[in-house]
């Protein structure tokens, strides 16, 4: 009887963790469309918290993006930068929500979101940043046209 309850709880934990992950990242496989002119468009859905979170790639490695129009650059944690073997360039000071922090500039060879891929994207490595989410800032977003309608954000590569 106890084993049955343990198995049931384990199964329910597994199922609910998957549901919670999809609520956090409703764009695990971002939808890609083409407009009348053949331009690539990626359509993202907002998550329950009102954020646009999406799976993507940096230099061919899978990452989780949080779109942040308030971030000047793509912002990456020190831990993730190590895993991606990103070189650290010039040391700079960055203004964050938590105040001024030391960061290192770097360049990303390739950043991909759905079928939109941009080359040579400026980024910052922030040692104070925790977690594996990458802030997809304006160094990427300013190179796209974007439109928000309701709970959807459409990014268009021109």
Q: What is the gist of this entry?
A:
By secondary structure, the protein is of the alpha+beta class.
Q: What keyword list fits this structure?
A:
4-stranded antiparallel beta sheet, single chain, 158 residues, 11 strands
User: Can you say what the CATH homologous superfamily is?
Assistant: Acid Proteases
Helix content: 10-25%
Alpha plus pi helix count? 3
Number of strands: 11
Average pLDDT value? 89
Q: What's the order of the H and E elements?
A: HEEEEEHEEEEHEE
Q: Beta fraction of the residues?
A: over 45%
C-alpha end-to-end distance: 61 Å
CATH topology type: Cathepsin D, subunit A, domain 1
Structure description:
This protein has 158 residues and is of the alpha+beta class. It has one domain: Acid Proteases (Cathepsin D, subunit A, domain 1, Beta Barrel), CATH 2.40.70.10. The chain is built from three helices and eleven strands, in the order H-E-E-E-E-E-H-E-E-E-E-H-E-E. The strands form two sheets. Strands 3, 4, 5, 6, 7, 8 and 9 form a seven-stranded mixed sheet that branches. A four-stranded antiparallel sheet has the order 1-2-11-10, with no helix packed on it.
């Amino acid at each position: 009887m106890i084993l049955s309850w343990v198995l049931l709880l384990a199964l329910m934990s597994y199922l609910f963790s998957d549901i919670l992950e999809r609520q956090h990242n409703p764009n695990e496989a971002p939808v890609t469309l083409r407009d009348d002119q053949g331009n690539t468009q990626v359509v993202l859905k907002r998550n329950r918290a009102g954020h646009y979170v999406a799976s993507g790639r940096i230099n061919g490695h899978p990452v989780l993006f949080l779109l942040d129009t308030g971030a000047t650059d793509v912002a990456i944690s020190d831990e993730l930068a190590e895993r991606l073997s990103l070189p650290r360039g010039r040391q700079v000071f960055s203004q964050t929500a938590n105040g001024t922090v030391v960061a290192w500039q770097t360049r990303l060879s390739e950043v991909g979101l759905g079928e939109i891929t941009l080359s040579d994207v400026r980024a910052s490595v922030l040692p104070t940043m925790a977690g594996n989410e990458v802030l997809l800032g304006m160094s990427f977003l300013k190179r796209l046209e974007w439109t928000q309608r309701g709970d959807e954000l459409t990014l268009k590569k021109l």
